[in-house]
């Protein structure tokens, strides 16, 4: 099939949007197993990776308040801001605690009413409904020392920006399974209708990814659509109740993505009736100025380059000494390449 498709083109570029897919492709050796004319490029589907330096700086600034406890998922601890990380701030004495859910942060707030607890609202459509449900619980229980610093990002607007940019030649999208469990397939329909781009919601086992790739190659031959390979978990309508909870508390807003820039309607902010739980309404939030590091995470997340093309990869930037968030997160493309594909000798024309 690849031979037939490549008669009139040198390469087929498929973008795996989700960071979990990136890890799966690297760990299962799929990139090395497929025809070298088939390129699997990473997308902006790692929530930690797209969190901006300014957002990290805001969190660090809040953590410096002696009456504040910052609660966050563990993979946010080492993400670099302009002058440091939450891990470094904790080492200096700030009260920063790792939790597994927003509800864990609410329980801490219930137990320590004399302190203000701030949860970092990081994640995509998968995480946002659980945070919204926690806010509703806090409202119902009258808990006043819990708030959320919203940093949420939404996947379809980012794909729209990529599809319209003209900067990356993408022939199809491996769509995220977890996000699609919530939003279904309708939000992706513009890819087929407006851009004639094949797409397929795919699971995370090796067989899932390979079948998803096959479905995309068939679409390139026969016509673009939004397909679902991950049928055991994803329905076309998604999860209406999860979306209802999310939309009760949050509304769409413009958002900045690290190294990508502002993407219209790609974030979530609080609706008027819930602004009392917005950290920005309770505290003066300060942000720093983003500094240049030489990190090319933005280009990696847009599929413009692969991680080894960054001059810092595996040298100045390693999991022990990360310069950019793509090397920090367990879903980051650079971390995946570093862990599973450092020894692979890329074909000289792989990146052309």
Rounded mean pLDDT is 91
Number of structural domains: 3
CATH topology of the largest domain: Rossmann fold
Beta-strand percentage range: 15-25%
Shape: globular
Q: Whole-Å distance between the termini?
A: 21 Å
Along the chain, the helix and strand elements come as: HEHHEHHEHEHEHEHEHHEHEHEEHHH
**Poorly predicted tracts of residues:** 347-352
Rg over alpha carbons: 20 Å
Return the CATH architecture of the largest domain: 3-Layer(aba) Sandwich
Helix- and strand-based class?
A: alpha/beta
The H-level CATH homologous superfamily of the largest domain, spelled out, is HypD, alpha/beta domain 2
Counted by DSSP, the helix tally is 16
Instruction: Strand order, main sheet: write it out.
Output: 2-1-7-8-9
Q: Mind describing the biggest β-sheet?
A: 5 strands, parallel
Helix content: 25-40%
**Level-1 CATH class name of the largest domain:** Alpha Beta
Number of beta strands: 11
Descriptors for this entry?
single chain; alpha/beta; globular; 5-stranded parallel β-sheet; disordered C terminus; 352 residues; 16 helices; Rossmann fold
């Amino acid at each position: 099939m690849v031979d037939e498709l490549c008669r009139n083109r040198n390469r087929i570029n498929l973008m795996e949007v989700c960071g979990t897919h990136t890890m799966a492709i690297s760990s299962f050796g799929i990139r090395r197993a497929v025809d070298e004319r088939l390129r699997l490029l990473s997308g902006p589907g790692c929530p930690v990776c797209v969190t901006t330096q300014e957002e990290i700086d805001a969190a660090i600034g809040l953590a410096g308040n002696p009456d504040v406890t910052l609660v966050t998922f563990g993979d946010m601890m080492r993400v670099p801001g302009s002058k440091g990380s939450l891990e470094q701030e904790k080492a200096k004495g700030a009260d920063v605690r790792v939790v597994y859910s927003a509800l864990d942060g609410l329980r801490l707030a219930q137990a320590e009413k004399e302190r203000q607890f701030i949860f970092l609202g990081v994640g995509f459509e998968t995480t946002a409904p659980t945070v919204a449900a926690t806010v509703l619980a806090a409202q119902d229980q009258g808990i006043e020392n819990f708030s959320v610093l919203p940093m949420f990002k939404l996947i379809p607007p980012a794909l729209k920006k990529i599809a319209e940019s003209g900067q990356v030649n993408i022939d199809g999208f491996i769509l995220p399974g977890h996000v699609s469990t919530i939003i279904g397939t309708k939000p992706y329909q513009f890819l087929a209708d407006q851009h004639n781009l094949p797409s397929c919601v795919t699971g995370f086992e090796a067989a899932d990814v390979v079948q998803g790739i096959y479905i995309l190659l068939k679409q390139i031959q026969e016509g673009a659509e939004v397909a679902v390979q991950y049928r055991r978990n994803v329905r076309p309508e998604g999860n209406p109740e999860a979306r209802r909870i999310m939309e009760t508390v949050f509304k769409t807003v413009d958002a900045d993505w690290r190294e990508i820039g502002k993407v219209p309607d790609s974030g979530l902010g609080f609706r008027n009736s819930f602004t009392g739980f917005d950290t920005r309404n309770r505290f003066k939030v300060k942000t720093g100025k983003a500094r240049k590091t030489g990190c090319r995470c933005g280009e990696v997340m847009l599929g413009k380059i692969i991680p080894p093309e960054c001059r810092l990869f595996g040298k100045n930037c390693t999991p022990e000494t990360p310069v950019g968030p793509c090397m920090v997160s367990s879903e980051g493309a650079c971390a995946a390449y570093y862990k599973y594909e450092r020894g692979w000798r890329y074909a000289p024309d792989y990146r052309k």
